[in-house]
Design brief:
294 residues, 14 helices, mainly alpha
Length: 294
Amino acid sequence: MNNISHKNFGPILIIIAACFWGSMGIFVRKLSEYGFSPIQIVSIRITLAALAFSAIQLFKSRSGFKILPRDIPLFLGLGFGSILFFTICYFTAITIMPLSTAAILLYTSPIWIVLMSAIFFREKMNGQKLVALALAFAGCVLVSGISGEGITLKGLLIGLGSGIGYGLYSILGTVALRRYSPYTVTTYTFLLAAIGSWFICNPADMLTKFSAASNSTNLILFCFLTALITAVIPFLFYTLGLRTVEASKAGILATLEPMVATIVGITCFSEALTLLSGTGIALILAAAVVLNWK
């Protein structure tokens, strides 16, 4: 009975994670007002999340910091190949194409997860998954917009790179969870991603912006809140969910994020809800229902 409840709780954790990720726009827009570049915001978020995950691991079990040397490439893949790579690709895509198009390309991730899961984990490509995948992707397209204006080959490849990198977390995370606890996985993933981010974020300029802020204490507290809401809680919940949910299902459930982002835009920034975005929200919800229908 315990195992059944744990399996049922996995999708709920992933849905909660998607909801937290969907609130990211609030924090990114606020930090942008202080003059931080997208890459600097990424670095702030990842670095503080790494500190938080390290503190959690220290509290849970110090032995969780021990990893086998043969697994170092796995964690490098999670930190550099997934978290840092997909974030850089996504923020770069935002600067060279419409946000809606960048979002659509990012949310090709469930397609890559389903394909990689079939290849590496031999997960079955059943009709239920294919229907849910089609509904989720169609919903993301409608929620994000269908324009596709201003897209180039370079932009297309970078945008697809964000989707592949995003999907890679589910694949590599599933492998890592066979050997380590979710706390160890998230700690090392973010520590390595944070180290990598400091090579590209122009740290001196970022520290100057902190010192120039009218109320640096409030800014620092807000940065910690950003890391907690958009990284620590959602990535921990998503990783915990991966213990009982197939990587392909987890990727499709995570497409709830753009739906939540649309709702946040409507409620917090008075953005209009169009017929297309409303239909998209319905399709994404339908995908989650289809995927978990027994």
